[in-house]
Specification:
Length: 220
């Protein structure tokens, strides 16, 4: 940096990355903003210096592309020989990771299926799984609703039978109550239902009940 000022944001390291490195290296140390800015400037200046030296090394070898060997040679030329072993370890790790990624890409190519098609098939599988889960949920809700309706009908029949038995003056056992209900006309069963509701044996119906007709005639 010729002017000694802070580096331009377009040619400097990301501040978030530098702050993360500082936190990892000094987790229990508080660093002022001025110190963070200074570390950022130093890192950027080091990279510029190293890149310039690697570029010169590349030119001396009549190469057009800066490679890892040029970076290592630049470190040695600038007097940072102690960085070389660690840089070489990182380079080896990168090569291993690159080889693994290449093998994965080769396997996909061997399948003869483009990546776009694989993504489309994956989305279809996800959609089918969601539809199956939705269908299972709907079936489960239907089973629960049917069970609740059956239980409600059974409770209503039991209460009506008990009311009919009471109106007929028989015992409240299930067999006697069923016999009493079976011998009643529609009008008598409706009357027994009203009596059961009034006595609290049955809950009020959700819908309006038709007026009681003693004659049992349902026609208008």
């Amino acid at each position: 940096m010729a002017d000694g000022g802070p580096p331009d944001d377009d040619i400097s390291l990301p501040r978030t990355a530098v702050n993360k490195l500082i936190k990892e290296m000094l987790p229990n140390m508080r660093i002022s903003n001025d110190a963070r800015e200074l570390v950022l400037n130093c890192c950027t200046e080091f990279i510029h210096l190293l890149a310039a030296e690697a570029n010169e090394e590349c030119g001396r070898q009549a190469k057009k592309t800066i490679g890892p060997e040029h970076i290592l040679a630049a470190l040695k030329e600038l007097g940072f020989d102690h960085y070389v072993p660690e840089v070489e370890d990182v380079l080896e790790d990168y090569k291993v990771q690159a080889t693994q990624n290449k093998r994965k890409a080769t396997k996909l190519e061997d399948l003869g299926i483009p990546e776009e098609e694989l993504l489309r098939q994956q989305e279809e599988l996800f959609a089918q799984a969601r539809m199956q889960q939705l269908q299972m949920d709907q079936e489960e809700q239907a089973r629960v609703a049917a069970a609740m309706a059956t239980a409600s009908a059974d409770n209503g029949a039991t209460g009506l039978a008990a009311a009919a038995a009471a109106a007929a003056g028989v015992s409240s056992s299930s067999s006697d109550a069923a016999a009493a209900t079976a011998g009643m006309s529609a009008a008598q069963r409706q009357l027994a239902q009203f009596q059961a509701i009034a006595a609290g044996a049955l809950p009020p119906p959700a819908a309006a009940v038709a007026p009681f007709n003693p004659a049992g005639n349902t026609s208008a």
